[in-house]
Specification:
With about 350 residues, the chain is of the alpha/beta class. It contains 11 helices and 12 strands. The protein is globular. It binds iron/sulfur cluster (SF4). The site of iron/sulfur cluster (SF4) has 13 residues, from loops.
Length: about 350
């Protein structure tokens, strides 16, 4: 456990436990503000604060699940880490290289090591390209290998994801949703990446197919020593695949913790509400569902103080005035909520 009897407010996890692990990705105080244009002259009249001062690390070989409602900023965050969009502020370090301000040419050389699996496998696969061409395309962009080697790798990848080498002659429309996602996974693996972001990769699939794709991703992680950032809108999907889970609300991290600790002992009222909606596998156990009132406020006009105070059943005066910072509760469990700190930032009740 980290020292928690002094001021432990922090915006930058990790704690002492995580310091022993090797970092692959470091996200430091990252913001993404999209300008809002208005008036005849189309001047900037405000900003949508899609991601607002977020910091965390992803360690080699782990899966970090990121969960939040639509508008929480989770997909924008994923796209910034791959530098598909530029951060407004902050630093993103990938494999010891600062990619937040690097030129697109330099980013391109790192992109071979970072790939993405998209939510809609059909929309992300060009229907006019054969499956073989789709899987080969990233290799053509990022690697200098012969045609024969590329073909060999395409066949191996299709076998690895359970489709068989002959699938390379077919087109995406000839496959089911789950099979198309397997094609998306084979394509993401084609450059032998170290890191994969799954942006809601199973949300569009039937529940039975979801678990097959999740199992495949877990198996590939072990086989190829992959590190995952797994984005989802619901906690039940990330439960099995994640080592740690970050819960986002209105562009900020509300809570981040190892999976077991987060599901067993959620601290943030928003996480508690999300967990209460996860179906309980043991039907004899009853879980009271916490219903949140209202919708998430607009990220262009976020509330003062705690971003969750307009919907929080435990909100009090301090919540409207002061923004809670992520606070170390011990054992890698961080929460941004005034229920756990004194006004000077000391932790009221450490977890362990
Ligand atoms: Fe609720 Fe206040 Fe905690 Fe925000 S800081 S989650 S409003 S109790």
């Amino acid at each position: 456990m980290t020292v928690i009897n002094e001021k432990t407010k922090t915006n930058t996890p990790p704690s002492a436990l995580s310091e022993n692990k090797e970092k692959l990705v470091e996200v430091k105080n990252v913001k993404k503000y999209f300008p809002v244009k208005g008036g005849i002259l189309r001047r900037t009249v405000g900003h949508v604060k899609a991601v607002d001062d977020v910091s965390f690390n992803i360690y080699k070989g782990e899966t970090l699940g990121v969960v939040g409602e639509s508008g929480s900023g989770k997909s924008t965050l994923g796209r910034m880490i791959l530098r598909l969009i530029d951060p407004t502020e902050g630093q993103i370090i990938f494999d010891e290289k600062d990619i937040s301000t690097a030129s697109q040419r330099k980013v391109r050389s790192s992109r071979k090591d970072m790939q993405m699996i998209f939510q809609d496998p059909y929309g992300s696969l060009n229907p006019r390209m054969s499956v073989g061409e789709l899987i080969e395309e990233p290799m053509l962009l990022h690697e200098k290998i012969s045609k024969d080697e590329r073909k060999k790798r395409v066949v191996e990848l299709l076998e690895t994801v359970g489709l068989g080498g002959e699938a390379r002659f077919k087109y995406p429309h000839e496959f089911s949703g789950g099979q198309r996602q397997r094609i998306g996974i084979a394509r993401a693996l084609s450059t032998k990446p170290k890191f994969i972001i799954g942006d809601e990769p199973v949300s569009a699939l039937d529940v039975s197919v979801q678990s097959q794709v999740l199992n495949l991703m877990s198996q590939l992680q072990k086989e190829f020593n992959l590190t995952y950032l797994f984005i989802a809108h619901d906690l039940s999907v990330v439960k099995h695949i994640s080592d740690r889970v970050a819960v986002m609300y209105l562009g900020r991290i509300a809570e981040i913790a190892p999976k077991r600790s987060l599901y067993k002992e959620p601290l943030h009222p928003y996480t508690k509400a999300l967990i209460s909606a996860v179906p309980e596998p043991d039907v004899t156990k009853k879980r009271e569902k916490i219903k949140l009132e209202g919708d998430m406020p607009s990220p262009s006009n976020p509330p003062t103080g705690c971003p969750f105070h307009t919907r929080c059943p435990e909100a009090h005066d301090r919540c409207k005035a002061e923004r809670p910072e992520l606070t170390d509760m011990g054992d890698e469990h961080y929460v941004a909520c005034h229920l756990y700190t004194e006004e000077d930032g000391t932790v009221k009740r450490p977890l362990h």
